[in-house]
Amino acid sequence: MAILQAWFMDNSHEDPQLPHHRNPYEFVSPDHLAELGVLHWKLNPEKYEEDEELEHIRATRGYNYMDLLDLCPEKVENYEQKLKNFYTEHIHADEEIRYCLEGSGYFDVRDKDDRWIRIWIKAGDLIILPAGIYHRFTLDTSNYIKLMRLFVGEPVWTAFNRPQEEHPARRKYIVNFGEKIGMPLEAH
Known about the structure:
CATH class: Mainly Beta
Helix content: 10-25%
Strand content: 25-35%
EC number: 1.13.11.54, 1.13.11.53
Oligomer: single chain
Shape: globular
CATH topology: Jelly Rolls
Number of strands: 10
Membrane topology: Peripheral membrane protein
Order of helices and strands: EHEHEHEEEEEEEH
CATH architecture: Sandwich
Subcellular location: Cell membrane; Cytoplasm; Nucleus
Binding site for Fe(2+): 90, 92, 96, 135
Structural class: alpha+beta
Cofactor: Fe(2+); Ni(2+)
C-alpha cells in the first residue's frame, strides 16, 4: 500500500503545479503531518460507493454530506481563476475533507515554523485538514482530479484568506496543535 507523499517545499514562485522539492529533497513523515492535525487514510477508490471503511470514517466523524467534483479545464468554468483562488493561502472554520477518486493534486499546509509542506494526493487518498490550518490547493501537471468532498451538515465553502490570527478556528487550532503535542492516530 502506497504511503502518502509529503515534503518541505522550495521557495520558488515558478508554476505552482510543479512539485517544488527542495534540493536535497526533505520528505515529511505521516507522524509529522499528524502533529499538525492532518489525517490520512488510503482507501480503494474503485469501490467508494460500497466501501465499509469509508462508511465507518463518515459515521464516526459525522460526515453526512457528500458530493463529487471533477476539477479540470474541460469541466470547470473559469478554471484558471478557480485554481488561483484555491491556491490563495487560507483557513476554514471547519475541517476540509477530500477523498481523491481519480487523478492527483497538491495540498500545501503550513507547519509550526510557517514552512510550506506539500502533500501529494492521488487516487485512494482521503485527507482531512483541521479547521484553522493555513493551507492551499492546486492540481499537479496532470491537470485533473476527481474529488469526493465530505462535510458535517450543510457544506460551507467560505475561505478566510491569511492573515486570520484572530479567527476563532485559527485560535482553536493554535491551542490544539500549536505546541508539539502528539495526537492519537486512527488514520493510516
